[in-house]
């Protein structure tokens, strides 16, 4: 259970044998957190932990952001001295930087600690990070908090960002007892965030679903505002426009990484929506009222079925 210094389950595939593992004592301080990258996600984790009264150590590429966070949120810098003292480390950077940080500092993570990420793709991240941690006696768990806004940066982070939100968890391969133990402890460590649910998935299940629920929505929204009419819409728009364009505003470098790391599933979803849009266009061009009404009714029916109404 969280709050003890008993030996924890190891990362899957660790090359350290049972005898060697037992001789390696945890160095973490129970309930101490580390956060890598203080953007919207990392900043929100740090603020949630801090509000709960926990010690939080952080690293951020931009020093001024870290110094700002250290005024009220962060207890100190996450460095070679403090990494071994953290029970949970949250990697909240872009995909490539997440892997790079773990490659550089995995050897400093305490035996028995848990390291999670917040990246919006899981196949690439889990494969690379699990490979890195294979030689070390800590557990890496792929995670994706299903929360956020169209804004980015520490200034928009908030302690309540994850309240009631789902957390998707992609645990490494391990026996059922180890998995249950790791997940129970992870839930306890993440309790300050107040997630509404924890959904277990494989990396492939995650990426296939997220291509539809998140990535496709960003692409469609971003493409939608490229209509020449968008510049003349003022006075003619209301809720529909706001809902469809909310995520057109995005962090282009980060989303480029995410889209390319999930290109196969995202391209498949784009092909599907392009085909569906073409059907509507064909019905309009033919002035085919019967066909158009059928398409609209089908979409309405599917939405109601999904919502259980």
From TrEMBL:
InterPro entries: 6-PGluconate_DH-like_C_sf, NAD(P)-bd_dom_sf, PDH_C, PDH_N, Preph/Arog_dehydrog, Prephen_DH. Residues 31-309 form the Prephenate/arogenate dehydrogenase domain. Keywords: Oxidoreductase. It holds the Pfam family PDH_N. The keyword Oxidoreductase applies. Belongs to the prephenate/arogenate dehydrogenase family. This is Prephenate dehydrogenase. It comes from Thermophilibacter provencensis. The lineage of its organism: Bacteria, Bacillati, Actinomycetota, Coriobacteriia, Coriobacteriales.
